[in-house]
Amino acid sequence: MTSNLPSDxxxxxxxxxxxxLLVMAKRLDWKRLRQQDDLNIFLGATVAVLGLWMIHTxxxxxxxxHLLGASALTLMFGPWFALLAFALINAALALWQGQxxxxxxxxxxxxxxxxxxxxxxxxFVDRHVTNHFFIYIFLNAFFGAALAVSLTGLASTGFxxxxxxxxxxxxxxxxxxxxxxxxxxxxxxxxxxxxxxxVYKPAWIATFDDRRYLxx
Length: 216
What we know:
This protein is mostly helical. It is 74% helix and 3% strand.
């Protein structure tokens, strides 16, 4: 999203982002990153998602389309490390593009929002639905990723319209439909990725337990 937002929006956006950063820093289990294997996996996944974000297409400033990777990182590392990864990703892009003021809104809408939704969905499925491998993949990775991207598209549309960056009619006609189409690409890519990792490297998925999903 572009940094050309009304100045009145910048202070509350930065304040919200900094507050979430402080909560994240308190909740993170930093000891995990002291393990070389865990650190390599985390950094590798973060760089991979950064690469996905750099492969994008846009129609106008602030209106771009790319895979998010939020659901995948949430399933792999949990919500707090996923938030850290997206904070780093958005910081790198903001510095590279020279749009520092775009960092808080991009992190909140394209990072925190889909991560929170993906985690809540996982917790709901984990508690109320039968533990089964295909249920885990379909509901959390495939269906969850599609819903997370759709929710992100709706949120970004609402924010851009409410802030006056673009008219609602333009966004509903030229932006939101393509966001919903991207949800299917996100669903297939996340579903296939999580399936492959579960099969070959299940220890990389923090939310997956062989004893619960496979040994039944």
